[in-house]
Each structure stands twice: as C-alpha cells, then as structure tokens.
C-alpha cells in the first residue's frame, strides 16, 4: 500500500489548525467570563469596604446572575441581606443554595448554619433551633452548639442551656463549670421554695466550689431560713475564697454580725479585706459595725472612717458621707451642698460592664446589655 505523504501532511496541518482555532475560541470565552464575573465581584467588594451596602448588593446580584453556580457569591449576598435586616431575602438565598444537588457537604453545612442565623435574627426561634440541631456531628457542630447555647440563655431555658454547655465541654470547647453554676443560681432565684433553692445552690457549688455568686446566694438563702450562723460561715468562706467579692456580701455580714453578736469578728474580717483593697461597700459595713461598738447602736453613726478613707484615696462618695457627720455653721448651706454631692455621686456608684460598658446601680452576674457572664467587676465606677 502506497502512502500519500502529501495528503497525510495536509491532514496533520488541518487537525493542528482546528485544534488551534478551538483553543483560541475557549481562551476567548474564558477571558470574557473571567472579565465579566470578577469585575462585578470586585465592584461588590469595593462597595462593601466603603460601607455602601446597597451598591454592594446590586453588584453581587449581577455576579450571581452571570454565574448562578458560584456558591461563595450566594454566601456573600445572603450575609449582606442579613446584616441589612432583610431576613426573608437572606433565607431565600440560603434555601436556594441548599436546593442545589451539586453542593458539597462542606458548603451545605455552611448554608445550614447561615440559614439558622437568618432565622435567629428574624426571631423564628423554632426553625433556628431545628437548623442548629441538624448540624450535630458536622465540622460546624461547635459553632452551632454555641449559637444554640446563646438561644437558650436568651430564652432563659436554663436546663437545656446546661445540656448544651456540657456538650460543648465534651467537645473540648473549654471549661463551662462557672456557666453551669450560673444556670443553677438562675433556677434557684426563680424557685418559690427556699429549700429547693438551697439544693440548687449546693449543686452549683459542686460544679464550681469557689463561685462567688453561689456562695453569696447560699448565705442569703440560709439567712432567709433562719440559719444565721450557717449564713455567717458562708460569708466567711466567700471572703476567704474570693476576697474581691467581699463588698457584695459586706452589708449582709454586718447585719448578721449584729444579730449574732459577732461584731468584733466581722469587723476584723472587713478591716483585713479593706486593708488589702479599699472598697466603699466594705467601708460602709465597717462604719455601721464600728458605730455599734462605740455607742451600742447604729443610729449614732461614726463618720471618721470616711475621713480616713479620703486620706488613702480621693472619693466623692466618701466625701459626701463624711460631710453628713459634720456640723457646718450654716445648716441650710450644708443641706444644699449634700444634695448637690448626692446627685453628682450617683453615676460614680454604678457598676459598669467590662464587655459593653452598660452601667447599672445593681451588680449583675450577666450583663443585661450584651448578655456576657461575669463581666461586671464587683467595684463601683469610682473604684475602677
């Protein structure tokens, strides 16, 4: 058989030419697509960085329309809708992602978590709870459990919150013993039975033996049950284990000391605490007890300790209290000055959340503003 080399060469050239044309066509198409999509995508990012969310959303919608299969654009778009408060649109975006058969398991779990966040922000608690529970056993389980924990805390479902906290602890997400103690203290505060409340507080102390809130709550419950001696001992334990929180129990300690005739012992405890760190609540209790020792009654208050406090640290609150015990030549002027000082010192008597700055005249174990636990120092603003 004779081979026609001319035809063979021409055929090879034709194949090469067709391949070259096809490759050029593919490259051209790829350039067109890459030119279109990133342009809209990067425009959206630029708008987002400049906090122009409306324009960013328009750009991302354009990018998604050009490439409906791009999951990252859907995630970006859904998150933007959620941040703007357009929860229904965010839900639709994430539901559209979940409806795709070609979505990887990793992206499917991301979409489920994003959908749960949409429901949470929209206030659809039952759907959010179901979506978060569905992530158990996935790579996002820890994040889902943390979100579920926050959900139960906000709804004050302390028993289910405790179950999630224990689950997170088993996942290696940290020590939740203090949080579990808080949950038991919350249940105790809601109980109408002092005996049941006492049992819950004792369980809290098993979870966290040196938890200041549980020790203080136990002292108050024992006092309400008429067990003054046990209450006094509980406060002594509080002062020994968590001396920083002495001020929160100082008033009750002074009251118990007067009831049990243990004025000297309580005064020594308070003086030791005050020497280590001067605190106004401790000072107030010391004044009450010292006044009783000097005169046999708390009605005749000895204000000299406030003057001594001013020698150690400037304090408008202490200065106001000291002035109450002084007799100025013009009583009307003294009254007006005291009223002014009282009004000016009110903001200084507040406690301030270290996480969000929320201020309150009452000490909270969980901030009403940001919901953080143990974010309130036991010192008032003037003492910080």
Write the layout of secondary structure elements.
Layout: H1 5-49, H2 53-66, H3 71-83, H4 87-98, H5 105-122, H6 125-133, H7 141-154, H8 158-170, H9 177-190, H10 194-207, H11 212-224, H12 228-241, H13 246-260, H14 263-276, H15 280-295, H16 304-312, H17 316-324, H18 331-345, E1 351-352, E2 359-360
Antiparallel strand pairs: 1-2
Any overview of this molecule?
- The chain is an all-alpha fold and 384 residues long.
- It has a domain at 346-384.
- The protein contains 18 helices and 2 strands.
- The chain has helices at residues 5-49, 53-66, 71-83, 87-98, 105-122, 125-133, 141-154, 158-170, 177-190, 194-207, 212-224, 228-241, 246-260, 263-276, 280-295, 304-312, 316-324, 331-345; strands at residues 351-352, 359-360.
- The chain has a two-stranded antiparallel sheet with strand order 1-2.
- A hairpin with a 6-residue loop joins strand 1 and strand 2 (359-360).
- Helix 13 (246-260) runs antiparallel to helix 14 (263-276).
- The longest helix has 45 residues, at 5-49.
- It is elongated.
- It starts with a helix and ends in a 24-residue tail after the last strand.
- The relative contact order is 0.04.
Structure summarized in a few sentences:
The chain is an all-alpha fold and 384 residues long.
Keywords:
mainly alpha; two-stranded antiparallel ribbon; 71% helix
What's the gyration radius in Å? 34 Å
What is the approximate shape? Answer: elongated
Strand content: under 5%
Spatial sequence of strands, sheet with the most strands: 1-2
Give the strand tally: 2
Q: Quickly count the helices.
A: 18
First-last Cα distance: 103 Å
Main sheet: strands, sense, barrel: 2 strands, antiparallel
Order of helices and strands: HHHHHHHHHHHHHHHHHHEE
- SSE-based structural type: mainly alpha
Helical residue percent band: over 70%
Mean pLDDT: 84
- Low-pLDDT parts are 27-36
